[in-house]
Design a protein that fits this description.
This protein is mainly beta. It has one domain: Beta Barrel (Thrombin, subunit H), CATH 2.40.10. Helix content is 12%, strand content 31%. The chain is built from six helices and 16 strands.
Length: 300
Amino acid sequence: MRQPVLTALAATASLCAALTPVTAAAAQNTPGASTAKVVNTKSRTQLDAYWTPDRIRAAKPMPAPEGPSAARPAAPTKKGVPVHIPATRPVTAPDAGIQSSVWGTVGRLYFTIPGKGDYICSGNVVTAANRSVVATARHCGFGDGGTNYRFAPGYNKGNTPNGWWGWRSAGWLTGGGQENDSAFLVLDAPNGRRVQDVVGSTGLGFNWSSNYAHILGLPVDKDYAVWCEGQGYAGPSGQRLMNNCNGLSGGASGGAWIENYQSDGSATQTGAYSGSYGAAAAASAWGNSSYDVWNGAQSS
């Protein structure tokens, strides 16, 4: 674990090749998975008024879902064609030789579950045509009536160098367990200010195999972004697993499982941190169903 230098570096990538549809060969969706969506009905003024300093201090880390006590075999499926959507650089950093750093795109996510209280998760800005999408975990309020979503990329011990964004809509996978613990949040664009323009974005990978990976999240007990790294492998239910991953406690849920991490902080996200499976860290595995949710989000 280490505390990163939270700098918003730039990225090089062409969206022309990135934002193409999945081919027909990859049309098989994740067994047991369907999608759901919700649209925010509150104004930005109402959202900002809700998040008083007292509410922010009182928010609790969202409990991660428990992994199954016994192995639940994944339903057989034909693996889809791997898809890669490249990262982008901030529009304010035109140097084509600099990549977008995940340390600047990962951030703190606040939200409310009506009747239960205010909660904390993590999220990460990922490439999207509308330049306004954050990847996180389904269990961060989605399907439980979650609302009042608010996100700060580059959050570090209460400091928000890139400001706060509200939300417009969200989509997520339903059904299944940790392997489908995925959601994509569409942020607002106050005064035309889009989050991807400001901090850049992490690339996405769908239908990727589990390779050497890093997991990044913001646990509440540290209040800044930390990571663990190791060899990823497929779990018995189709989730991604990594051994010897300590320190990603409450509040890190929804953080980024990333591959192809480079020394400048550029990377490709292939799942969202879901919690534990026994002694291993677990994450969703983005396949065609997750692609469908992301594609819907980027078109919103």
